[in-house]
């Protein structure tokens, strides 16, 4: 993938370099179930602070804000490393794609901001650590990414590659699109009214699969513009990643068995199918995961 051919100009906020919270600060995961939480938290578009202690009252250590570097929204060109340049171009490319799609339907797209951080970050949804993985916070319309997650992808999530990394970002952008369209709010209301945990989880699965499909729509746009020169290997790497992060695969790795009613993001096959539906059609109207029977997703 020739990502350097993509446009620049994404909203990037660079908070790297702060070295984390003093004295160790907030801990994510650990203890019984920590591995499961870490595996499932990685990648999935939700700030899990409420599950990891991030929304609890801050300790004296957690309240020391010097652990978080000041935002740098205008980073001089000479200070931009390759990671910054990469996410800048991917985000700018998603901005172009979704601005065009929204304009075609008579709407205006509000461009999100991607926050780069290392180790720990303060979001509008609470504190989080790198172990949470990339996530989107609807309260501040920002995506959060510690780029060390890309190395985790290489080691543990089916391999990496530039298009697979881009898929991660485009998935989070997909959550922003859902927020813009009011879909996220509707899902939250349905989850609150759900009669069981399994029913509430099913709405989360629909939301995540739609974000996968929206990521595919962006991939189709990039391929159609012939700017990034996507290869079969690039596309296969994204498919491998989608398969690796299916709930069934993650549960099998972490606990040795699969509990479908506890799925929150979809099976490996579902994630691959919905990504490909968006990628092959390029049409967000093909990403309606809410009108189908749940067992047909």
Tally of helical segments: 10
Q: How would you sum up the global shape? A: globular
Helical amount among residues, as a percent range?
Answer: 40-55%
Number of domains: 1
| Cα Rg | 18 Å
Order of helices and strands: EHHHEEEEEHHHHHHH
The assigned structural class equals: alpha/beta
How are strands sequenced across the largest beta sheet? 1-2-6-5
| Mean residue pLDDT | 79
Task: Give a short account of the largest sheet.
Answer: 4 strands, mixed
Q: How big a fraction of the residues is strand?
A: 5-15%
Give unreliable regions as ranges.
Answer: 18-74
Counting DSSP E segments of at least 2 residues, the number of strands comes to: 6
N- to C-terminal distance: 30 Å
Per-chain topology:
Layout: E1 11-14, H1 34-41, H2 49-52, H3 82-104, E2 113-116, E3 120-123, E4 126-129, E5 135-137, E6 142-145, H4 148-156, H5 162-181, H6 183-193, H7 197-225, H8 232-244, H9 247-255, H10 268-281
Parallel strand pairs: 1-2, 2-6
Antiparallel strand pairs: 3-4, 5-6
Helix pairs in contact: 1-9, 3-5, 5-7, 5-8, 6-7, 7-10, 8-10
Subcellular location: Membrane
Organism: Deinococcus reticulitermitis
Protein name: Neutral zinc metallopeptidase
């Amino acid at each position: 993938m020739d990502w350097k051919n993509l446009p620049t100009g994404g909203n990037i906020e660079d908070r790297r370099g702060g070295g984390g919270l003093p004295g160790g600060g907030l801990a994510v995961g650990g203890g019984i179930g920590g591995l499961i939480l870490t595996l499932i938290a990685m990648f999935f578009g939700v700030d899990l602070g409420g599950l990891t202690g991030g929304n609890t009252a801050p300790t004296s250590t957690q309240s020391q804000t010097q652990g978080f570097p000041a935002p740098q929204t205008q980073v001089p060109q000479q200070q931009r490393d390759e990671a910054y340049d990469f996410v800048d171009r991917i985000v700018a490319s998603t901005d172009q794609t979704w601005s065009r799609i929204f304009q075609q339907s008579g709407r205006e797209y509000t461009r999100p901001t991607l926050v780069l951080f290392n180790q720990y970050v303060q979001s509008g949804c609470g504190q989080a650590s790198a172990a949470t993985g990339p996530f989107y916070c609807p309260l501040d319309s920002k995506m959060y990414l510690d780029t060390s997650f890309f190395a985790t992808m290489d080691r543990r999530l089916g391999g990496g590659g530039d298009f697979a990394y881009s898929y991660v970002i485009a998935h989070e952008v997909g959550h922003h699109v859902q927020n813009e369209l009011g879909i996220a709010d509707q899902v939250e209301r349905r989850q609150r009214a759900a009669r069981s945990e399994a029913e509430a989880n099913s709405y989360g699965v629909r939301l995540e699969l739609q974000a996968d499909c929206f990521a595919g729509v962006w991939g189709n746009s990039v391929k159609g513009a012939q700017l990034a020169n996507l290869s079969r290997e690039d596309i296969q790497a994204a498919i491998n990643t989608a398969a690796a992060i299916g709930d069934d695969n993650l549960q099998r790795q972490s606990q040795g068995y699969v509990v479908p009613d506890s799925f929150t993001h979809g099976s490996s096959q579902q994630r691959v199918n919905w990504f490909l539906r968006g990628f092959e059609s390029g049409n967000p109207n093909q990403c309606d995961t809410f009108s189908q029977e749940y067992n047909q997703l």
